Amino acid sequence: MSTRIPPEVWDHIFEIATHVPYILIPEIFDKSTLIGDEYNDIYLPTLVSAFATKRNLVLVCKQWWHLAIRYLYRALFIDYTRKLLPICSTLQSYANGKGAVPGAKPLGWWTERLDVETCESAADEKRLVDVIRCLPNLAIVHLDFRIRLNDHTSILRSITNALRQAASSLRVLDWSTWSSDPAIPLIMREFLAEFPRLCILRCDCMPWMDGVIPPNILSSVTTFSVQEMLITDGDIPSESRLGHRRVNLQEVIISAGRNGLESWTVFMRLYGTFLTSVHLTMYDGYWDVLFRHLAMIRQSCPNIRRLILSMIKFSYLARDTFSLPPIEYLGVNMFEVLHDKMESKSLFSALAIFKDTLPTLRVVQLTHPDNVDRLLTVYQEVAIGALERNLAQCPFRIEDHDGNLLLERLKAVVVSVVQHDRQNPTSLGLIGQEPFCYLKYLFQSADAFD
Fold this sequence. Notes:
Blueprint: H1 7-17, H2 37-58, H3 62-72, E1 75-78, H4 84-95, E2 113-116, H5 122-133, E3 140-143, H6 152-163, E4 172-175, H7 184-192, E5 200-205, H8 215-218, E6 223-228, E7 251-256, H9 261-271, E8 277-282, H10 287-300, E9 306-311, E10 329-334, H11 341-357, E11 363-366, H12 369-377, H13 380-389, E12 397-399, H14 406-423, H15 435-445
Parallel strand pairs: 1-2, 2-3, 3-4, 4-5, 5-6, 6-7, 7-8, 8-9, 9-10, 10-11, 11-12
Helix pairs in contact: 1-3, 2-3, 4-5, 5-6, 6-7, 9-10, 11-13, 12-14, 13-14, 13-15
């Protein structure tokens, strides 16, 4: 009997071994509300780490190379300019039939995702355009680099022209590339008009200066994010200008600052009734800006069910004037490292208030793993004490970033520490204590609200 494993089985093994959660279609849609800096901070490092596994697979033998090479090129991440030349050369060689098995598809045919975080010279820009031209089936594109000051329009048109070949497959576009060229909105408007299947769109600036998004975008895009919202042209539009257009827009990501609230108010006047989800990010320390944006959301979004707040401090949540719309899901994230015990106390104090003041709430989730890790490793006493005392009869779930109950995660950590303590009695100074005794010790020492 032959012991050779069929290629189909190997293919399935490689699929599992190289899988990175929430990176490709369709899993990325589960994290659509985080698209932008928060998503990139959480999930792109796992994509980079996976490249080591993929390279090792293709180097095992010739057979594995032919089977696994598609997984190596499924997602391309360019964070150093020195990567552009070898990637460009390899893709162009295979596109011209060099090195490929007769009848096999070129390597670029397999690429579904492209992330570019650096492009420093004219030569880099040309290579980037050549790389894109070799990738006809792109579904996700993330561009985040500063364009050279002397040739904005030319390079942008070259990139957009190259991306047009993927018009039928592109589903997610994160165009965070910064440029001060006033021609950028026009180029983006012309470019976006040709992508009928685009679902998630993030731009550095608002392409439509009058605030009215074209019908082809409204009918396909469900998630929209603008880093600098500016609506300046003409009269202030109203919802009546939309006519009877089909609107699939469901969620927006707002970068809150001291400027832009007026433009976002105009945007919400047009599209607020369609929105069921809003992600509000606030990078500065002006808590009054957060409150004004929340007031705008309460007034303009009657159908909102999900709200994510990314902010500098959790203590904003516990202010007397803080008020949320009647949502079912609340995601929270603190940008800075959770290094202050008072911030963790503020988080749970706010949740205790929501328990009594927000009856519609069903789920509260800590969306960033760094916040969860700090609660599990540094402030577990505060967290366990709050969850067991003030939030014991809570009507909503309190989850970590993966959707697990936070209290269950905390208890698992405590049990692990107890097991370690029993194996190493001198490490914590709790010799001979049983796990339930140690849990009781933690509960009693957690002065979360004292």
